[in-house]
Design goal:
Layout: H1 12-25, H2 30-37, H3 41-54, H4 73-84, H5 99-110, H6 116-125, H7 142-151, H8 153-156
Helix pairs in contact: 1-2, 1-3, 2-3, 4-5, 5-6
Length: 160
Amino acid sequence: MTTDQGAQPTTWLEGRRLRAWELYEQGWKQIAIAAALGVTRGAVSQWIKRGTAGGREALRHHPAPGAAARLTAEQRAQIPGLLAKGAPAYGFDGDYWTAKRVAWLIAQTFDVQYHPTHVSRLLKQRRHTPQLPIAQATQRDPATVAAWYDERWPAIKKPR
């Protein structure tokens, strides 16, 4: 498939729209384009309308812009440094970060409110995943637990 700008389609859907436009420019009827591409006549009609109004560029993939980021790139870059200080530095019990705690930290530091679910997404983008620690009794003795697994567990465990 050839394009005016020489740029390849970014998705197969975009390629299909551009191919429909090429066929239309070659004089094909909309019904024949729809049959050749396996789409409805209505879809071809919409593509032709877009192509006529805006040219080939109107048929290209344009991702939805979404809402503007509330934190600047500079502010997002500061978050790992803030988290590195540890949760107790901000008055939390236990040295672990949860999405709620990070949302609170962002609100206090940058005066920007985020839902904890969105905070999780932000942190995953930066390859940081806060997790709750596994709760263990403070009296837990690893040697006693290991001995129990070695001596008692085989007798309790059912054979396969």
